[in-house]
Design brief:
mainly alpha; 61% helix; elongated
């Protein structure tokens, strides 16, 4: 299928067209990002007096990312913060969806795992 034109009108639906447009715009934005990183990679080479490498585009992208880091152009990727114990969170979520016959036992286990003066994990 050609990525520049949508498929023929016979087979097209509105949901397919919207998905096709979003994929196409994503590719366009990704291409812009690659072009920008290559441009920054060339700037990095000029700054540091480096010669061009063999795998040109890959190297330029890596150097562009390094240039962004050195000059503070790109914000660091946010990392997830751990809010608590994964096992405790799992048991609490399980207590919400377990069958009613088993719910009291799972809720008792969840209460025992909760941090606090009455729980095991203090």
């Amino acid at each position: 299928m050609n990525s520049r034109r949508p498929p023929s009108r016979k087979r097209i639906t509105w949901s397919f067209y919207r998905r096709w447009r979003s994929i196409r715009s994503g590719r366009r934005l990704g291409g812009r990002r690659v072009d920008r990183l290559a441009e920054l990679g060339r700037e990095y080479e000029r700054e540091h007096g480096l010669a061009a490498g063999r795998q040109r585009l890959k190297q330029l992208i890596q150097l562009g990312k390094r240039y962004e880091q050195e000059h503070g152009l790109a914000a660091p990727k946010p990392r997830r913060k751990r809010t608590g114990d994964a096992w405790t969170e799992f048991v609490i979520a399980l207590a919400r969806v377990v069958k009613p016959a088993h719910r009291p036992a799972v809720e008792q286990l969840a209460a025992a795992l909760r941090p606090g003066p009455t729980g095991l994990a203090a």
